[in-house]
Amino acid sequence: MTEAIEKQRAFWNDWNASTREKSLNEISIEQTEVIVSWLSSLRRRDLKIIEIGCGAGWLCTQLVQFGQVTATDLSDEVLARAAQRVPQARFIAGDFMTTDVGSGYDVAISLEVLAHVADQAAFLSKIAGLLKPGGHLMLATQNKPALVLNDIPAPGPGQLRHWVDRHELHELLAPRFRVKEMFSITPRFNRGVLRILNSYRLQRAADRVFLGSLMRGVKWIVNKMWLGWTIMGLAEVRR
């Protein structure tokens, strides 16, 4: 393992242990809802699925209802604990770019991983090679226009960071995939007037005075303006 990969492994072991092994936030919950909706639309329960960058394995608890699940991540310590929590899935620890994870998958899923790999084009190309003809990639990645409106801590040691916008993501996908859907979800801001969209108390108060639909309408508009925290992308591998 190279020094750079070792630093990344250490970072993600610590990060997952301190965050995703403890709880899920609104961002992860809404990403899960989209993924489950896309999988349900395939109307199959015998899918061969791989999740790349599964972290603590929290999504795998949902994925196993759709078929055979393989999940891989660099953070080996966290993955060992995930394997105990979700014995129905197969977990493989290692650097995705150099690890044999099999092939012939119907669906590949990757949530908030693209921004943290050194070569994004090579990463997506390898995913394409794992899929059967007509297989699907279901991807979530941080949305650069939204994140630049937030105060984000500097990357930690070993944390790579290269956010993309929807145009850059489409360009990255185009050589190997046909994009079927792409949209932003989960407005989330920690500075400026848009912080009110994060307020759970305000949403509850709006619901009590029958203005909840107005708040949800504002969030819908922000998403349509491509200012949601996450870009969701559904793409089919090119034959």
Automatic annotation (TrEMBL):
- Which Pfam families does this chain map to? Methyltransf_11 (PF08241)
- The Methyltransferase type domain extends over 51-138
Write the record's keywords in alphabetical order, separated by commas.
Methyltransferase, Transferase, Ubiquinone
What are the boundaries of the signal sequence? none
**Entries under InterPro entries matching the protein:** Methyltransf_11, SAM-dependent_MTases_sf
Please list the GO biological process terms of this entry. Answer: methylation
One GO term in the molecular function aspect is:
S-adenosylmethionine-dependent methyltransferase activity
Entry annotated with the keyword Methyltransferase: yes
Output the PANTHER family linked to this UniProt entry.
TRANS-ACONITATE 2-METHYLTRANSFERASE, TRANS-ACONITATE 2-METHYLTRANSFERASE-RELATED
Protein name as annotated: 3-demethylubiquinone-9 3-methyltransferase
